[in-house]
Amino acid sequence: MKLQLKTCLFFLLTLLTFALKATHNRAGEITYQRVAPFTQTVSGLEVEVYNYLITVTFYTNDGTGIADRCRDTLYFGDGDKAIAFRMNGLAGNCPNADCSPTVPCGEIILSDNGYVVKKNIFQFRHRYPGPGTYLIRTTDPNRNQSVKNIPNSVNVTFYIEASLVINSFTGANSSPVFKYAPIDKACLGQCFQHNPGAFDIDGDSLSYEISTSRGANGQTVPGYSFPNQQWGGIYTIDPITGLLQWCSPAESGEYNLAFIVREWRKNTNNKYQLIGYVFRDMQVIVGNCPDRYPPVITQLPDTCVEAGEEI
User: Fold this and answer.
1) Range(s) of the domain holding residue 188
2) What's the pLDDT score for residue 242?
């Protein structure tokens, strides 16, 4: 009986330790870029090849007892997968990671009253076998705890994906990239606006649509709700400009929002065709803002003086 009790206690402590070290994913995305060489010679013939540089970016919590993944596994969508080590930040003995001291520790991009965000970049090089549609994806346990619109978020898998379409007219296609990080702040009772600053280097047309945060197997997180469903306001995204709005948050806390940026290009029939998309999961922290209203400016009266006089 004592042996069984000790075993149970050990098991519970192990689970608790795992939970304490698994609370970290806040936001992220996958982007890709076609890179040289674009062709190779086979049996004397010049043939096209499809080499891609794929970047996975995680935005995570950081601190004592917070999990820190220094490696990531990416599935390329063609049956292959690979592991890459984190590549940004200073190398050293990362406090909560299990990698060698030569692996960089990531970069803290925000630290404000206990809300910490670390940026982690992983890059993969992959050659695709030929034309096709490929779903690039990665998962990582777990999300950070206490996300308002994701029940029991600390035990929910974090998932992101991107779609790559390769066909005869696509050419050197690359995904859109983002100017602004998927981390933002909102004020209680005020209209929240976020523009990701998406840009396509190939000049392709972009469209935007709201999605849900995903979990295991890329499925919508069980119990996920759009922020306005329980916490008030109107939640929209402009399909052309990408401006995301929540007007207006009624309760403080951390919320995860998600959207898809689709990439379009005209085909040989002069019709727009989908050539890929990026799924982005972002986090917004809602709180009280001291400067709730814009300052009131009082117009100063005109004052005239004679030349040479002082006022």
Assistant:
1) 21-287
2) 98
